[in-house]
Amino acid sequence: MRLLLRDFKDAPLAWSGVALVLIASQTMVGLLAMMLSSAKALGSLPGMAEQGRTAYQNLMIPFVALLIAAVLIVLQVVSSVINQRRRNLALLALQGATPWQLTSLTCMRVFILALAASVVSLAASFLLARPLYAWETSQFLIGRQPFIATHQLASWAVGTLCGILVALVGTLLTIRAISQISPVESLRAAIIPPKAAGLVRRIAAALCLLAALAVMLMPIMQARTIPDEQLVRLNTAAPILPIAMGSTFGFMLLLAAICLAGPSLLGTVTSGWTRLVALHNPSWLIACRQANVRMRSLSSTVIPLIVGVSLLMMTDSFYQTSAESSSLLPPNLDVSNSDFSMLITLLGPALVVTLAGVCAGYLISAHGRSLDLSLISIAGADPNQLELMSALEGFIMATTAVLISFTSSLLPVMAYAAGFRKVFGAASIGIPWAHWALVFLLLTSAASLASWATVRKSAGRSPAGVIAQYTGE
């Protein structure tokens, strides 16, 4: 216990990031568990069986998506904490600790933080469950349904237990990162993460990619074209819903592949597009080299950012594709409003966890960023060069995130448009270019400003002092 408390005290920012992700995931899991309990109770009321079954099935979709997203985000965040704490883990390994003992120690830390997050979840879930349930059910084509408070504490406890198990599963998946820690090499280079994703994660990423393609294509292959004489009498968009759900779940598997590929994907994309934009400015060249190196250590920040942007923009693209495709159909059939407005509802809880992962990654990487700036400063860079280089580095990282997000959101939208054309005979791919441009400007501006602010914050500190503090001198 003393060792646990000492590590929390030695790395407050890193473990604060883990706590932030756990609070977000525990709160969302607890909320959805209480909503599922209410939907189940709704089905037991006379004449409400259909509404209760629809609400339960639709709420189960964001619940499963949330559990998958939470595992992936916890994996990213805990892996980043391990990479930052390699020096401390190496010291324990020198004293005889095995990889499983180090993993157990990490799991115990996450378990303690998950229990603390459950306290916050308890207060937030009971406060937010009733109003959010009414809003959620209003998106499911069954109207706003009353919240039935039966067995709410038990359902919250079950949901919280699922959240704790998800956190532990995400932590256990880091056993490979811990087992690769060589005590001597880790003490020589304490902050260098693995250069690429391991073989197991690469295989898992490839399997997720293949599964995503299969899930998106199978509903299209099984769909049947509606004849024109039936199309003018059709008043529901039910035939397209399996294709929409297949594209949505395929998109989630695609995001899982991105999370598993992690540092390898980020480094490849960054080096690829920065070589195409071959500027000869010294600050740009240094920023490119720094970004290529730091992408590996910043995967816990950039990957959740990619997931969050992809979720938002895929939903926007889905809606615009539905709206533009609906204009090509008979006026009796409109699939652009009610049927697909619930996509945001389905993906909302997972989006909350991914945004928490972005903030957590920034907290974890803040300490290592100060060390990088100090090393460059000692190498001869003046403050103005550091500020410009840092702003450009933030711009490069945000651009990489937008490029990957655009590609990952475009594939399921294209699959949905292809299925739409097969079912209804006409379709149009809607890409919200103006929204993408706005997202790009906001992300690059925010990333550049945050990186520039980091330099300004470190301006008054002695570079030698920062390096000495980091190395324990």
Write structural notes for this entry:
- 80% of the residues lie in helices and 0% in strands.
- With 473 residues, it is an all-alpha fold.
- The two termini are 26 Å apart.
Q: What is the general shape? A: globular
| Proportion of residues in β-strands | under 5%
Assign a percent range to the helix content.
over 70%
Number of DSSP strand runs: 0
Q: Total helix count?
A: 18
Radius of gyration: 24 Å
> Largest beta sheet, briefly?
none
Series of H and E elements: HHHHHHHHHHHHHHHHHH
Q: Note poorly predicted spans.
A: 184-195
- Tell me the structural class: mainly alpha
List descriptors.
single chain, mainly alpha, globular
Q: In short, what is this structure?
A:
With 473 residues, the protein is mainly alpha-helical.
SSE blueprint and pairings:
Blueprint (H helix, E strand, L loop, with lengths): L1 H9 L1 H32 L5 H36 L1 H9 L4 H39 L14 H21 L2 H5 L3 H6 L10 H24 L5 H4 L9 H21 L1 H14 L5 H16 L1 H28 L15 H37 L4 H42 L8 H26 L4 H8 L3
